[in-house]
Design a protein that fits this description.
Largest sheet: 3 strands, antiparallel
Order of helices and strands: EHHEEHH
Strand content: 5-15%
Bound molecules: zinc ion
Number of domains: 1
Number of helices: 4
Structural class: mainly alpha
Shape: elongated
Distance between the termini: 23 Å
Helix content: 55-70%
Length: 118
């Protein structure tokens, strides 16, 4: 997306549905991230030759970076406070979504930074 976009839901049933979907996506992301972190540890503790360990480890690092980028640019959570149950606004300058509270409270920091989270 190239333009700032605000998404607000007033209907409590839609808000609950949205929050549940975000939670499901977050839990799946967390499960995958933990799996990759465990796999990195397994590779480091394996008896594989060092060059093979390094190759596998670098693949896992890239995979983790890839799924981090996906969650960072998604509307699942605020890029500042990480809450997942609020209305969000998209900031095209860093390709991230922020809750309205954070966006208005930290707009100077948000607009000047290229990325947040972790
Ligand atoms: Zn926030």
């Amino acid at each position: 997306m190239k333009h700032k976009r605000e998404v607000k839901l007033k209907d409590p049933r839609l808000r609950a549905l949205r929050n549940n979907l975000r939670e499901i996506i977050w839990l799946e992301w967390d499960r995958r991230a933990c799996g990759i972190i465990d796999a990195k540890s397994d590779v480091l503790n394996s008896k594989l030759p060092e060059n093979e360990k390094l190759r596998l480890y670098e693949e896992l690092v890239k995979e983790l970076e890839h799924i981090d980028l996906i969650i960072k640019s998604s509307v699942v959570m605020c890029g500042w406070c990480r809450h997942r149950d609020k209305d969000m606004i998209y900031n095209p300058s860093n390709n991230q979504w922020f809750c309205l509270d954070c966006y208005h409270e930290h707009s100077e920091d948000i607009l000047s930074a290229s990325s947040f989270i972790y």
